[in-house]
Amino acid sequence: MRRFFVGITGASGSLYGLRLISELASYENNEVYVSITPDGETNLKIETGIEDLDEIKSKITAKSNVEFVDYRDFAAPVSSGSFKVDSYIIIPASMGCIGRIASGVSSNLIERCADVALKERRKLVIVFREAPLNTIHLKNLLELSRAGAIILPAAPAFYHEPKSIDDLIDFIVGKIFDIINIEHSLFKRWN
After folding, report:
1. CA–CA gap between residue 60 and residue 43 (Å, rounded)
2. Can you tell me the distance from the alpha carbon of 104 to that of 118, in angstroms, rounded to the nearest whole number?
């Protein structure tokens, strides 16, 4: 069994997070813990066109191996280093979230989980979707990279000849799967 934590924050790109959760949950031996900030919820509604967040959550939790954890729940098992989580993925990660993590500040469960990942030397993948970047953003990303996080911009390639937005999303999710060592066929590899 493998455990994953997925945090969705207020940056645009919540579709990446939804697809990642769906793909991770498709493996029966995976446990997937999901936390969404209020700004993440707002973007989910805007980007999916679904006003009822419970409808989105019920689709995701249709699989018994997905559990939603309130973003304010600092007592959740995933908030402790003694609870073994294989990989933590924040997708999308807002620059505010990135700045707080880089500063060692945990104002919500997602940021706390990132702190746990860094202190326990576990895999932390941060997928940001911001453009352009200012010097402060770059410094924060560099600080996180130096601390051990893997920085993955939501910047899909085009060599696999994408035909739809889903193909672009799958490319990024596939790159995450490569990082967390899950075999996949989400995109055609370069050869």
Report:
1. 16
2. 10
- pTM of the full structure: 0.96
The token pair at 79 is 């908030």
* Residue whose pair of structure tokens reads 């993948």 in the numeric block: 125
Query: Which of 78, 103, 100 is CA-nearest to residue 10?
Result: 100
The tokens for 133 are 């970047």
The class that CATH gives domain 2-179 is alpha beta
Distance, first Cα to last Cα, the chain:
32
**pLDDT tier at 62, thresholds 50, 70, 90:** confident
By CB neighbour count within 10 A (0-12 exposed, 13-18 middle, 19+ buried), where does 178 fall?
Answer: middle
Distance (Å, rounded) from C-alpha 101 to C-alpha 75?
19
Measured CA to CA, the distance from residue 186 to residue 191 in angstroms comes to: 15
The CA distance from 147 to 141, in Å, is: 10
Q: Which residue has the tokens 């202190």?
A: 119
DSSP 32: E
Question: Would you state the structure tokens that stand for residue 112, as one six-digit string?
Answer: 């706390």
What is the predicted pLDDT for the residue at 64? 87
